[in-house]
Structure formats: structure tokens, C-alpha cells
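The following record pairs a protein chain with its ligand, LHQ.
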Amino acid sequence: MNYETILYDTANNVATITLNRPESLNAFNDPMIAETIAAFKQARRDAGVRCIVLTGSGRAFSSGQDLKDVQRWEGDFSIGEHVRRGYNGLIMAIVTVEKPVIAAVNGVAAGAGCGVALAADLRIASHKASFIQAFSRVGLVPDSGSTWTLPRLIGYARAYEMAITAERVTAEKALEWGLVNEVVPDEQLTEVVAAWARSLAEGPTLAFGLTKRAMRRALDLSLAEALEYESYLQEIAGRSQDFQEGVRAFTEKRDPTFKGQ
Ligand code: LHQ
């Protein structure tokens, strides 16, 4: 597939999606929203892809909605429909793909760009990264799932503070708050993310995908319902080649070779 606003690359069972509008700090215009959704669908369909990395080109992860596009919107333009048709689909594409998604946060993630980073399963941040719930700077409410993800990740008070102050949260603060999994020196980000992605792509990726489904679903379930859903998914994982291989490797005292099947 040919993309104009993003880069899509696969190597070693890892798909890397790079937001590629560096002149606007990777602001989302309509084509970039559509192409990022298409890229996640492409990665979902490709059985050879066992881990997905999302990052930005240049010095930013993403500055959110392209505000220069906004100025061209006509009077009766529906922002609600724009969000419904665009960002909602993008967030759902990220959270429903049953493969681990790593956001390699290379710089600022603002507004919808922050929401997109928060939708990933893991966030590895450069020490130059920062997170800004910039929506209120332009008189809007958080979208792109931020009202759902942010309080779950860092608690209500901090989430609300980020939303109403729209202040920059540094990578170090984000680590302290549990917003990111790891912070690394900028020059090591690519290497550290590649090591994470390689390790995940060599893992029992069927189980990783089912784990994502279970944990995301459990956020809305009672304990009794979650226990039942775990049993259901364990039935599936327990029939996988990876389970057989894992047990065999343990008894043979060697490292397992997982196929994600
Ligand atoms: C940009 C942008 C940008 C265009 C930097 N657009 N060009 C949903 C539905 C409908 C409507 C609206 O929104 C939403 C959801 C949202 O995402 S709302 C939040 C939208 N985003 C923002 O409010 C963030 C705007 N950007 C900034 O506050 C700053 O650029 C940050 C803090 C991200 C980075 O600051 P600096 O490092 O100082 O960079 P800069 O401001 O100098 O930007 C560099 C260039 O990028 C500059 O262009 P220029 O031609 O002057 O060099 C900016 O105009 C451009 N740019 N963000 N969102």
C-alpha cells in the first residue's frame, strides 16, 4: 500500500508506522488519520506482523489535530462527526488489534497526538518526550479516548489536572505518574524500542493478543465476569502450539521458540 503522510515498514515480524508530517510536528490532517487507520488494519491482517511500533518523524510524536486545517473548515462543519469518523476509528484500530502496540514517543505528544500515544499498550519515551492535553488551549474537551485512558493510567485528579491546565508533562514526570513504561536517552530510543519489539515479536504472540483483549475487556467487567472470561481465553491459549512448546522447553531446560500460533 502507498502512503503519503505516514511511513509503513516491516522487518523481523515488526511493523513500524511513522507519522510523517514533520513540518507540522506530525499534526493529524484527514489523510493522515485515514492512512494511520489503514496501516493498523494492514498490520492486523498480516500474520507475519507480531508487534507494531508507532512513532513520529522529526522532533515530535504528534501535535494533534492540524489546526491549520481547522481554519479552513466552513461554518456548519461538525467537529463531533469529524471526531466520530476519524479519531474514534483510529483509537479503536489501536486498541482492538490483538498484537502489542508500542508507542515510541520521540518528542511532544499533544492533543489527539497524546490520545493516540495513550491508546498504545506500552509507551517507551525519549527523555525529550512530553505529553500535553492541549485540547483546552483551544477551548475543546479531551478526545481520542483521553477521558477514558488517562484517568485509568494516572488517576482522576492528575488526569483532570492535565486536561484543565493543558500543561506539558515531562518524560520524567510521566514515568513517575505511570504514564510511560520507560524513559531512555533520546539517542537510544530507536535501539531500545527495537529490542522491546523484537522480544515481543519472538514471544507467544497469540497469548499476548488474547491478554490485551482480556485486560481491556476486564476494565469494564466485575471480578466474577473477568474470571469467567480468563477461563474462556485460557481454553484458547491452552490449545496453542506455543503452550505445548513452552511446557516442552521448560522440561527440556532450553529457551522456547514461539510461533504465535
Ligand atoms: C502545527 C501544529 C498543529 C498545525 C505545531 N497544527 N501545525 C479534534 C477535533 C477537532 C478539532 C480540533 O482538535 C481536535 C483534537 C486536538 O488535537 S486539539 C489540540 C490540537 N493541538 C494543539 O493545540 C497543539 C498545537 N501546537 C502547540 O501547542 C505547539 O506546536 C507544541 C507545544 C506542540 C510544540 O511547540 P514548539 O516546540 O514550540 O513548536 P512550534 O509551535 O514552533 O511548532 C513548529 C511548527 O509546527 C510550526 O509551524 P511553522 O511553520 O511556524 O514552523 C507550527 O505552526 C506547526 N504546528 N502544531 N497542531
